[in-house]
Amino acid sequence: MRVYIIGAGPGDPKLLTLRGAELIASCPIVLYTGSLVPNEVIAHARPDAKVMDSSGMTLEQIVDVIVAACDADQDVARVHTGDPLIFGSTAEQMRRLSELGISYEIVPGVSSFTAAAAALGRELTLPELSQTVILTRAEGRTPMPPREKLEDLARHQATLALFLSITLLKDVTRALLPSYGADCPVAVVHKASWPDQVIVTGTLSDIEGKVKAAKLHSTSMVLVGRVLTATEFANSRLYDPEFTHRFRKGVTATRKQGDVRAD
Ligand SMILES: C[S@@+](CC[C@H](N)C(=O)[O-])C[C@H]1O[C@@H](n2cnc3c(N)ncnc32)[C@H](O)[C@@H]1O
């Protein structure tokens, strides 16, 4: 018996991995994390599967379901939104499974932060502008570790992807303004990849008002950084004709090799 911790992807059922779909279709027990896992993903379950929504359960109730499945020697598909290892609350489940000697395997998924970037059509890392993406959240009921306050992370001016923060935009902008500047681009993608996806773009100075006007209160990714609008960035070295790497020799290197041969 095994528990498969599966990333359902951000919403579009076609963004579920083949491995995830295959496992959901084969497990007799499917335990999914509520409305953010689309029905079409759960529809992969076999007709006789026991399918349960875990959104109203406690950790111990989830573990009880898994232990019962273990006693019956039945595999469990534990389906989480996006990628299960990013703000997935999966570590505490895995810890309990390890304590109980129940084996598990993780199937990654497309996270909402990449789905949001895809919706915007923007790369989150651009040469010489930002080579770092910080995945974080604003401090709400869940406290932030003291070394990870937003105003401290902001000092890097890296691209930021903020989960679970849409209702905290006032605090977010206050923390980011001194380092990023009022004109720094911000994009909010609500329900990325779902049919009712909404995109609101602005700057640190006006995004809060725009989001309020759009009445977005949940399921939104907040992306911050100059990469969101930049057009004046350097090309990467990867496709530079002069750049030699494992799969391609740069023009000069090829010429030199030719010279050596000619010698
Ligand atoms: C509990 S976290 C789960 C994140 C998930 N594991 C992931 O990798 O995307 C929930 C938060 O993820 C973000 N989120 C999840 N799905 C989203 C989507 N389709 N579009 C935008 N944001 C989403 C929102 O910030 C939401 O508050």
UniProtKB/TrEMBL annotation:
It is an enzyme of class 2 (transferase). It comes from the Bacteria. Belongs to the precorrin methyltransferase family. GO terms for molecular function: precorrin-4 C11-methyltransferase activity. The gene is cobM. The keyword Methyltransferase applies. The lineage of its organism: Bacteria, Pseudomonadati, Nitrospirota, Nitrospiria, Nitrospirales. CDD domains: Precorrin-4_C11-MT. The keyword Ligase does not apply. Its EC number is 2.1.1.133. It comes from Nitrospira moscoviensis. Pfam families: TP_methylase. Keywords: Cobalamin biosynthesis, Methyltransferase, S-adenosyl-L-methionine, Transferase. Pathway: Cofactor biosynthesis; adenosylcobalamin biosynthesis. Residues 2-207 form the Tetrapyrrole methylase domain. NCBIfam families: cobM_cbiF. This is Precorrin-4 C(11)-methyltransferase. GO terms for biological process: cobalamin biosynthetic process; methylation.
